[in-house]
Amino acid sequence: MLLPALQQARERAKLSQCLNQCKQQATAFDMYLSDNHGYLMPANGKMTSSNKSLQTWAYQLFPYLSCGAVFNPEDSYYLKSGTRSKVFNCPDDKCKYTNLTSHLGYGIHSLLAKTRPAVRLTRNPSKMLLVTETSYSALGSAHTTHHFSVKNATWTRMLTRPDGYNELPSAFKHSQKTNVLFVAGNAKTFKAQLLAADDNQGKKLPWSIAYVDIWRVVEPNGIMSGF
Q1: Rounded CA separation 29/33 (Å)
Q2: What are the average pLDDT values for consecutive 10-residue runs of the chain, which has 227 residues?
Q3: CB-based burial label for 212 (10 Å; 0-12, 13-18, 19+)
Q4: How many distinct structural domains can be found in the chain?
Q5: Interior CA angle at 144 toward 138 and 149, to 5°?
C-alpha cells in the first residue's frame, strides 16, 4: 500500500521541481529582455558568420543563470564546454544529450521566436505561452533529432511517438501534466490535453486556434499582427 503512495509523492515532487525551473527561466528571460530592449531571441541561430556556429535560445540565457560556460563560436554546433544549467532539464527527461543546447527538456514557442516581437508589448502576456515541455525529451532511446522549440498540435498528434515531429509539446511527462511559462513570467501546471489545438475545453489558452486573437503582437517595426 505504501509503494503507490510513495510513487505519487515522487511524481508530485518532480512536477513541482519542474515548475520551479520554469520560474528560474522566467527570471533569466526577464534579465535578457531588459538587456535587449524587450525583444525576444530567436529559437536558434548563428552566433557568428561561421556556418558551424549554431546555438539555441537556451544559450542566450546562460549568462543570467551562472552557467560558467566556455564557448568558442567558431567551432560549435549546438555544443559548449562546461555544464549546461539544470533548469533546462525536466526531472522527467530521459534524453541522453545533456551537453547539447539543441536537446532541451523545454521548448520556446516557435512562432514567437520566429517573429521576435517586443514581447513586453504583446497582448495578454500572462496568457501567452513562451516555454513549455518538449515531447522528444521524454524519449530514452538514442536520437539525434533536435528539440528546443514547440508549436501547436492536435491531441492525437501529441499522444503519438514524436519521431519526425520535433516541435511537439509533451504529453508523456508527469502523468500527462505539463508546466507552462508565460510571457509575463508567470508559470502554471496544466493537463497536457489543455494545450492541444483541438481540445482546449472552452479555455482561452495560449495557442488555441479558436482564439488566435490573443497572439496579436507588436513586431519590431511597430506594426500589429496576429499569427
Answers
A1: 6
A2: 76 94 96 89 73 77 75 58 78 85 90 71 76 88 80 85 80 92 91 76 47 43 38
A3: exposed
A4: 1
A5: 60
Taking alpha carbons only, the member of 138, 134, 116, 135 closest to residue 183 is 116
State pTM to two decimals: 0.83
Nearest partner of 166 among 154, 156, 151, judged by Cα: 151
User: CB count, 10 Å around CB of 97?
Assistant: 17
d(CA 94, CA 10): 16
Strands 147-150 and 103-109: parallel
Identify each DSSP E strand in the chain by its residue range. Answer: 44-46, 54-56, 103-109, 129-133, 147-150, 177-182, 187-191, 217-218, 224-225
- Cβ atoms of 131 and 169 closer than 8 Å: no
Residue 38, CA distances (Å) to 50, 136, 176 in order: 27, 30, 33
Q: Domain containing 194: what range?
A: 2-225
Residue 109: what pLDDT?
87
Task: Say what the pLDDT of residue 50 is.
Answer: 56
Are 151 and 111 in contact, with CB atoms under 8 Å apart? yes
d(CA 33, CA 120) in angstroms, rounded, equals 8
**Which residue carries 514547440 as its cell?**
150
Distance CA 90, CA 221 (A): 36
